[in-house]
């Protein structure tokens, strides 16, 4: 290794933060070897420029959002693919919706509103259907994603940074040499690298979702603007083409689902907040398998951001869950199942007998939900959260039973409060915690209990205070003072105390 070229690399990377003489006494060749830095001076200069841009763009955030959004846009347009995954399928690029496509989808939404309105007891949103490109879907949904993944990103950036620092084995040596780093110390530098790596993986995941999502509520979360249903034109057409669906019927079907989701979230303000809060709470407790992470960073080339982008998420992030997180994930999946089942229930009721191949379209979505697309898989491996509903069939049966017994208003009233919804145990059919059983003697004693012949008269006497003067009361010693029936009123003050074995 040319030590002069390496010094130039470090000075160009850290700029004014590197005072004169800070590198004196350091074994730069060993540092370069441990960091997998390139031997060629031109490659070193290019790496330095990339590192400077990376640190400058990240700012104080735990995630390099600029890089994440850039990768997401390129992935959505098919210009960048998920590492190790097949090339993107469907409509190439990110075509904007044409005027005719916008007209067709909005006409389908008008029909869906007319058919939904009589079968649900909440207001159907009258907001005009948004017709998006993939890039617009990203722009509208990213503000919802950022607060969800910030806790995960902060933890993971720190964990990745610590693993890199431990692998290099240079934190103490560099700090002892007085060599400042971006952020003030070597740990901050490593954390920024970790935040960049997370941003790369997250960008791929969200960009891939933008190529798959038909609307803003496909994951059961209100990711779009409040009260505005929207469909991604290119993805709707891809879905129709891939499954040979009737175009007109499929547009009405997908519009009805998106509008039903929007109606539910608009009429139930607590629901969206509860879902996002549950995800954030889960994210704050996420942990990585640190042994697997250490193994991953051994061959990492810190000077090559493109090499970081080529890492597959399963190579980087192996999650471990505590029992409390498993329970939280179970409850989240149950709520998502209730949302999905309610939407399926009301849209089927609204469209049954009106659309051809309704069951075929429902089956297409059931299969997508059961298997999850590559983007959902990528998201779960990147963020550690499975946003896939469980027990949708059981939830659908539950909604149908509520509709049959309580009507539409009773069905929608179940969304008034989370306590009115069934628990995971109820939906899954798992038995509740066993209650202690009464003993045989207790059961026999209850069988011998008889009510007074004139129960109403006795109850009236009790409520009026009749016989109150003869009721047991506490005496001065704290014992229970009773009065015998065979003593007259003149014996008041005498009686039997049950304070231990003493008698008065």
From TrEMBL:
Stretches with biased composition (Low complexity): 87-101
Composition-biased stretches (Basic and acidic residues): 407-419, 460-494
Region feature Disordered, mapped onto this chain: 76-101, 407-446, 460-504
Recorded coiled-coil stretches: none
Gene3D superfamilies, per the entry: Zincin-like metallopeptidase, N-terminal domain
InterPro entries per UniProt: Zinicin_2, Zinicin_2_N
Protein name, entry field: Hydrolase
Species of the source: Brachybacterium vulturis
């Amino acid at each position: 290794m040319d030590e002069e070229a390496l010094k130039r690399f470090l000075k160009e990377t850290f700029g004014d933060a590197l005072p004169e003489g800070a590198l004196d006494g350091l074994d730069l060749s060993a540092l370069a070897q441990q960091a997998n830095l390139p031997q060629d001076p031109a490659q070193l200069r290019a790496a330095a420029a990339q590192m400077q841009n990376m640190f400058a763009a990240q700012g104080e955030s735990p995630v390099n959002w600029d890089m994440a959004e850039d990768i997401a846009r390129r992935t959505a347009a098919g210009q960048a693919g998920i590492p190790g995954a097949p090339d993107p399928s469907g409509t190439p690029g990110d075509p904007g919706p044409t005027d005719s496509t916008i007209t067709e989808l909005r006409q389908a939404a008008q029909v869906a509103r007319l058919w939904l309105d009589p079968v649900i007891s909440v207001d159907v949103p009258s907001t005009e259907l948004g017709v998006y490109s993939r890039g617009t879907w990203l722009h509208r949904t990213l503000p919802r994603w950022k607060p969800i993944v910030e806790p995960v990103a902060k933890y993971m950036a720190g964990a990745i940074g610590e693993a890199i620092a431990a692998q290099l084995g240079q934190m103490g040596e560099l700090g002892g040499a007085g060599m400042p780093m971006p952020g003030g110390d070597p740990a901050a530098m490593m954390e920024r690298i970790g935040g960049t790596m997370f941003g790369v993986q997250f960008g791929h995941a969200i960009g891939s979702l933008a190529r798959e999502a038909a609307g803003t509520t496909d994951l059961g979360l209100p990711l779009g603007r409040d009260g505005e249903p929207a469909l991604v034109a290119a993805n709707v057409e891809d879905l129709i083409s891939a499954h040979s669906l009737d175009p007109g019927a499929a547009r009405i079907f997908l519009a009805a689902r998106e509008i039903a989701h929007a109606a539910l979230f608009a009429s139930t303000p607590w629901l969206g907040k509860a879902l996002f809060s549950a995800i954030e709470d889960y994210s704050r407790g996420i942990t990585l398998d640190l042994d697997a992470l250490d193994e991953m960073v051994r061959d990492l080339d810190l000077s090559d951001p493109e090499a970081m982008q080529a890492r597959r998420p399963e190579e980087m992030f192996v999650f471990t869950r505590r029992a409390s997180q498993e329970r939280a994930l179970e409850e989240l999946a149950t709520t998502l199942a209730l949302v999905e089942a309610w939407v399926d229930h009301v849209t089927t009721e609204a469209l049954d007998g009106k659309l051809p191949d309704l069951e075929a379209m429902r089956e297409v979505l059931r299969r997508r939900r059961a298997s999850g697309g590559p983007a959902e898989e990528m998201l779960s491996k990147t963020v550690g959260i499975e946003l896939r509903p469980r027990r949708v069939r059981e939830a659908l049966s539950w909604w149908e039973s509520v509709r049959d017994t309580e009507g539409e208003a009773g069905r929608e009233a179940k969304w008034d409060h989370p306590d009115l919804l069934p628990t995971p145990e109820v939906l899954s059919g798992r038995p509740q915690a066993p209650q202690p059983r009464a003993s045989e003697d207790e059961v026999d004693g209850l069988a011998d209990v008889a009510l007074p012949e004139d129960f109403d008269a006795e109850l009236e006497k009790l409520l009026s205070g009749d016989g109150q003067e003869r009721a047991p009361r506490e005496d001065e010693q704290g014992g229970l003072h009773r009065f015998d029936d065979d003593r007259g009123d003149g014996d008041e003050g005498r009686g039997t105390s049950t304070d231990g074995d003493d008698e008065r």
